[in-house]
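I'll show a typical protein example:
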Amino acid sequence: MGDRGAFIDIATASIEKLGTITSKSTIYESEAWGFDSDQNFLNIALQLNTLCTADKLLEQLQTIENKMGRLRSDSGYTSRNIDIDILFYNSDITDTKSLIIPHPRLHQRMFTLLCLMDIMPNYIHPTLNKSIKTIKQECNDNVKVWKH
């Protein structure tokens, strides 16, 4: 919601303060995934070299979201001004109440896979044991996604 491009710029600059962004995907625009929305979404993937643990990184990313005015809803997927997810953390596998890595639905979302294809197409998903390229080829997501 709102000035989507500006929100991505602000979030990217804030994330860069947590380490070094080593890769950045193209920005992709997509229809909403999992619910109906009047506005399309902008999506980008960043590869970050950080000294933060995964839990500390999540805490820092949620702080960025909160400072940007993110409102959380318990009613499922909704439009929002910013949503920052940790898709992978090295090749770690984490499954706690607050954090699941790899992101549990990234393989179902074409908008995520296209972003990842830009920065790490040969990365092997640590639980699916397939490359991002292969996962993208197998993805059945029909939500429209295009370069912004």
User: Anything to note?
Assistant: Residues 54-67 form the longest helix (14 residues). The longest strand covers residues 19-24. The helical segments are 4-16, 54-67, 110-119, 132-138.
